[in-house]
């Protein structure tokens, strides 16, 4: 048996291979078939406006229903898929499925954006943005309705591949959001040069906001930085009313977290959005392609 390693190197199967690694190999084999077997599903979690609490966007979060293991967390299988190049096929499925769902929402008169997490591997593929463009066209969506969430550490890679992807995103008018902000090492020069319009404060600084002076200082400085550079700032992982109040007072623009909603299936997200008292649907709403 030959197993493929991250950097494209090949190594022979080692009987001493740790139980952990063997376990991972099994999981990868199953993951390879997960798309064809229809085991992947997108859940959605709303981002809400901090002032009106209206839904502004829905972030797609991948769920894998494994027939024997049950639900496997993306925190486990996304890194695995990254190392095995499987994230290419999975990522393409996510992009198309997110656009399909968002196209349906648009047809219902809902105006929220759809946000998709894009991994480092995907950013380095030269067909990423053309694929997003094709999916948008297929489902009749405007690029401005689609947000690419890219983690700070990937955004800061500054390689030829990520450069090209960012240039194409800018040219196409896609929205770009820097995810998990505060956990990487941002160069302010690079940050300013990105086609991003949104920063997401990492959950790590939100979770102990009420208890920790440090967390409050960090959150406040990220929000200050975002304002100075003209980014919209979103806080992720908001679980309590107290965190919500603090973040609103600090000037956070949008909020996301269990306090508002857990990630939920597309049909539930749709019900949630349709139930909103809204200025966007109803008689005054024009169903143009360009909203
Ligand atoms: P992320 O993009 O930073 O997503 C936020 C994670 O925090 C999600 O975990 C979400 O379910 C969780 N979360 C949201 N609100 C709260 C809260 O109030 N409290 C707590 N404790 N957690 C909250 P999830 O769904 O397990 O996803 C984990 C990570 O996996 C994501 O982090 C993202 O990096 C990655 N991921 C998920 N779906 C995809 C995908 O389709 N493609 C790629 N490339 N990565 C994905
Ligand atoms: Mg995200
Ligand atoms: Mg995040
Ligand atoms: Mg995070």
TrEMBL record:
Which named protein is this? Answer: Bifunctional diguanylate cyclase/phosphodiesterase
Q: Which UniProt keywords apply?
A: Membrane, Transmembrane, Transmembrane helix
* Source organism, top-level taxon: Bacteria
Query: Where does the record place the EAL domain?
Result: 24-277
Query: Span of the full-length protein shown?
Result: 196 to 486 of 499
């Amino acid at each position: 048996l030959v197993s493929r390693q991250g950097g494209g190197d090949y190594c022979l199967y080692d009987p001493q291979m740790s139980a952990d690694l063997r376990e991972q190999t099994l999981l990868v084999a199953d993951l390879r078939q997960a798309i064809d077997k229809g085991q992947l599903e997108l859940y959605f979690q709303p981002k809400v406006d901090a002032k009106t609490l209206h839904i502004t966007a829905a972030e797609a979060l991948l769920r894998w229903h494994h027939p024997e293991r049950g639900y496997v967390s993306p925190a486990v299988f996304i890194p695995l898929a990254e190392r095995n190049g499987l994230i290419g096929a999975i990522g393409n499925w996510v992009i198309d499925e997110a656009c399909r769902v968002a196209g349906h929402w648009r047809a219902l008169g809902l105006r929220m954006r759809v946000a998709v997490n894009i991994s480092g591997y995907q950013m380095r593929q030269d067909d990423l943005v053309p694929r997003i463009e094709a999916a948008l066209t297929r489902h009749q969506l405007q690029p401005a309705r689609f947000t690419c969430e890219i983690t700070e550490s990937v955004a800061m890679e500054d390689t030829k591949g990520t450069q090209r992807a960012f240039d194409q995103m800018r040219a196409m008018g896609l929205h770009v959001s820097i995810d998990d902000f505060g956990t990487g090492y941002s160069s302010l020069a690079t940050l300013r040069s990105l086609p991003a319009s949104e920063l997401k404060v990492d959950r790590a600084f939100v979770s102990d906001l009420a208890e920790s002076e440090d967390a409050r200082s960090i959150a406040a400085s990220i929000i200050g930085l975002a304002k100075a550079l003209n980014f919209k700032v979103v806080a992720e992982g908001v679980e309590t009313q107290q965190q919500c109040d603090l973040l609103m007072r600090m000037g956070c623009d949008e909020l996301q977290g269990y306090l508002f909603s857990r990630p939920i299936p597309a049909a539930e997200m749709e019900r949630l959005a349709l139930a909103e008292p809204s200025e966007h649907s109803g008689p005054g709403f024009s169903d143009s392609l360009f909203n």
